[in-house]
Every structure is written in structure tokens, then in C-alpha cells.
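// run 5 | inverse folding | seed 20
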């Protein structure tokens, strides 16, 4: 199991931080997910949350995987896909804690 770490995603002109922990069996546990107003360095880790398919209008979209990317310019293009990890604690993207756990610069 890895130490808790974090990566950014860029959505609708805002950076989102997802804190997660990787496990030896190619799975991940999401620790926190929150909107981050800081300016993000372009060479930071990047990710995309893979969401479940919605089959009913009242069904929430659930995070089921994390896709980790190599560094790249987040607004215009992503780096290459590095790995995909099934999420051990799938839930609606806004149901995860929204308080930072890993301090920036600690990984």
C-alpha cells in the first residue's frame, strides 16, 4: 500500500484535488475530493475519476475508477494514461470528505 497522495483534475475552469491511496492489488481508496482554488503547477500528477453509467435519472453517478496520467498541460491536453485503478470505496463524487488530508508538498 502506498502513502496517501494527491493529484489534480481540471473541470469547468476550476482545479479539483483528489487525495487517494493506492493498494498492491491495483485498487485505490479515495480519501478526499475538493475544489482547489490554487494555481496548479503543470507538472503535477493528474487524474480523471471514472464514473458509473447512469441508467435512471434519479441514480447518482458513482466514482468507480481513478485514471492516473503523466504530467501535461491540464487545460489543453493530458499526459499519457499511466494506470487505472478500481476504487475500493465507490460513492458519489461529492460524498467524499472535502477537507485536505495530505498537505501540499507532502507526498
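// decoded
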Amino acid at each position: 500500500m502506498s502513502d496517501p497522495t494527491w493529484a489534480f483534475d481540471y473541470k469547468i475552469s476550476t482545479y479539483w484535488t483528489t487525495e487517494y491511496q493506492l493498494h498492491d492489488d491495483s485498487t485505490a481508496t479515495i480519501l478526499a475530493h475538493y475544489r482547489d482554488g490554487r494555481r496548479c503547477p503543470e507538472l503535477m500528477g493528474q487524474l480523471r475519476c471514472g464514473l458509473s453509467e447512469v441508467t435512471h435519472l434519479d441514480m447518482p453517478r458513482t466514482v468507480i475508477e481513478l485514471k492516473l496520467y503523466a504530467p501535461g498541460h491540464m487545460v489543453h491536453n493530458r499526459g499519457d494514461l499511466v494506470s487505472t485503478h478500481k476504487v475500493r470505496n465507490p460513492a458519489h463524487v461529492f460524498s467524499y470528505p472535502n477537507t485536505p488530508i495530505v498537505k501540499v508538498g507532502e507526498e
